[in-house]
Structure formats: C-alpha cells, structure tokens
Amino acid sequence: MSLGFKKKDTVVVISGDERGKRGEILKIFSDKNKAIVAKVNLVKKHVRASREKPGGIQTIEAPLPMAKLQFVCPKCNQAVRLLVQRLEDGSRVRTCRKCREQIL
Questions:
Q1: Concatenated DSSP letters of the chain
Q2: Domain locations in the chain?
C-alpha cells in the first residue's frame, strides 16, 4: 500500500501532533508503510561519540505512517488524493483529483 507517494513529493500531515505541517519526503519504508518527512516529527536522539563525530543529543526526523500523510498538488497547492490513470500507450500517470493536472 504505497498510496502513490514518491521521494521528493510534498506532503501534509493530516492527523496527530504534527497536523498541518508540510514537508518533503526524504525516505520511504514501503515494508513498514512509513515515510520520513523533512522537518516534521522531530525527536531527540542520544548519540555516542566516535572518532569522526562528537557525541551528544541530536535532533532527527522520525518515520510517520503513510496513512497520516496526504499529497500536496504542486499546481493547485491543495492537499488531494491522487488519481492513477492509464494513458493510451499503457503507461500510468498520477493525476490531481481537483485540478486534473498530471503530476510528474
């Protein structure tokens, strides 16, 4: 259940503590149905020092369930559900349900 999300898509969080925040998808975990969104769902992580990096407390993005994310159309700038259509040549393309524009 990928819900049509891809890396570098802009999404908005629709439920939870982070509701209303927008960000770009950095990584998708399709086996767990989760995604990491830039600057959303920030958590503190204690990191042990190594030769390359000093130790301390770092702030990182934690994965969010994909069910809590909704795609933001780049044309109409609204949160929409995606429509997957087949073209005449047999290829599939993502389409915005509100403005009917193809999303590349």
A1: --TT--TT-EEEE-SSTTTT-EEEEEEEETTTTEEEETTSSEEEEEE---SSS--EEEEEEPPEEGGGEEEE-TTT-SEE-EEEEE-TTS-EEEEETTT--EE-
A2: 1-72, 74-104
